[in-house]
């Protein structure tokens, strides 16, 4: 297996809902494992997600989990997730779903560097950057 770099997102009890939402956005296969499946049955976090992985057909991989007891939850941390490319329709589709119900800090629009760009923080506290490269000419 080749090495790969992919985001791993932390949630505060809503990882299942968030990862199912991202599956709706990007498509693909979602695998979820709970704390209860790994020795913590009967605890308050038994049904929470210990590890989740979304593998989308376009090659995107997104992982996430609920923050376990004893660890501090920091919504969004200091990380943003960037989705970029030149497939206008595909990226606009992602933007529409990611920005629905989100706090949009930069509306998806043409920017001074020539690309179409938008930034939002979704209802799960994750900041998303969408950049659509424009043809130079």
From TrEMBL:
A Pfam family the protein falls into: Glyoxalase
SUPFAM superfamilies: Glyoxalase/Bleomycin resistance protein/Dihydroxybiphenyl dioxygenase
Entry-linked PANTHER family: PROTEIN YJDN, PROTEIN YJDN-RELATED
Source organism (scientific name): Streptomyces griseoruber
Full protein name: Glyoxalase/fosfomycin resistance/dioxygenase domain-containing protein
Domain Glyoxalase/fosfomycin resistance/dioxygenase positions: 4-128
InterPro entries the UniProt entry points to: Glyas_Bleomycin-R_OHBP_Dase (IPR029068), Glyas_Fos-R_dOase_dom (IPR004360), PhnB-like (IPR028973)
